[in-house]
Amino acid sequence: MADDDELSLDKTETGILQQLGFLRPRTTQRAWFVGTSGTHSVGKLFPLSDGMTIGRAPECDIVLEENGVSRLHARVHMLPGGRPRVTDAQSKNGIQLDGVTAKVHTLRHGQRLQIGDVGLMLARLDDAAEMIQRNLIASMERAHRRLAPDDANRSWLLGIAGTHSVGKLVPIEDGMTLGRSEDADLVVEENGVSRVHARLTVTERGIRINDLHSSNGIRVDGVRAEFHDLRCGQRFRVGDATLAVFRLNGSIGLIRGNVHDSLGRIARVLGGGNAAQK
To answer: Rounded distance, CA 123 to CA 31, Å?
Structure first.
């Protein structure tokens, strides 16, 4: 997995392992915020870069039009290795990381930042601007066809790595299957994925993933597992695809609208604007 948790190997060792098929080539990744709550923010995706400002004012780089957000609320600084550090800009209500208030927070993948009424969870995605935009558009149209617009407060899957999977944002339905076959509920077109690879089940504890006797198994945070109860923000890997579970507190219709509102900003920050217009 190409992220900050990967084992430290020198270039020769990494090259040999890639040639033998034990590691996929390292892909550049970017930190993003995913809006997990807030009427105007849930479902929005914000690619991060050094020096960004967050607040209610229209001149901010990340505009959050929600209660409890100051005009200039926080600043983002990117540390070596791509981890964001968020600093409170003397806001009225402060910033909380996983419920803890502090002036400065350095975030890991899957951690949740609270700014006023907005929840923002950090995700690290493969840096593939056009694929992310195309997959977001396709995912929202699929969700619109399958579920009622007022269907609300679901857990979702976000594709964070994989040639064809990065940027997919899919509402989790009880019993949905993942695999390479067109018969799977979520088609994952990546190397190492079996025709029907895994099943997701909604339980009282959250989302459980079960391996369906796949050739290459599933890995949760790098550890192979036959099944696992996934917590919010947790990553798992099937073949060359890595996905993460997020809880989005809003209706399908609201999330779909907010995702589409994100596309123009994503194009401006990352380039690849053609995909957002198709």
So the answer is: 6
Distance between CA atoms of residues 188 and 64, nearest Å? 33
CA distances from 164 to 8, 30, 43, 130 (A): 26, 17, 20, 11
Please list, in sequence order, all residues whose beta carbon lies within 8 angstroms of the beta carbon of residue 86, skipping any fewer than 6 positions away.
Answer: 54, 74, 75, 76, 95, 97, 104, 105, 106, 107, 113
Read off the pTM.
0.83
C-alpha to C-alpha distance for 275 and 263, rounded to whole angstroms: 9
Task: With H, G, I as helix, E, B as strand and everything else as coil, classify residue 206.
Answer: strand
Give the CA diameter of the chain. 55
Helix residue ranges per DSSP H, the chain: 11-19, 129-146, 252-270, 273-277
CA angle 66/67/68 to nearest 5° reads 115
- Full strand arrangement of the beta sheet holding 218-220: 169-171, 152-161, 241-251, 235-238, 218-220, 223-225
Strands laid side by side in the 29-37 sheet: 45-47, 29-37, 118-126, 112-115, 95-97, 100-101
Kindly state the tokens that stand for 227. 């099944």
Residues paired with residue 211 on neighbouring β-strands, in sequence order:
198
Strand partners, 77: 85
Q: Which residues contact 186 (CB under 8 A, 6 or more apart)?
A: 157, 168, 170, 176, 177, 178, 179
Question: Consecutive sets of 10 residues in the chain, 278 residues long: mean pLDDT of each?
Answer: 43 48 62 96 95 97 97 97 95 94 94 96 92 95 92 95 96 97 96 98 94 97 95 95 96 95 85 50
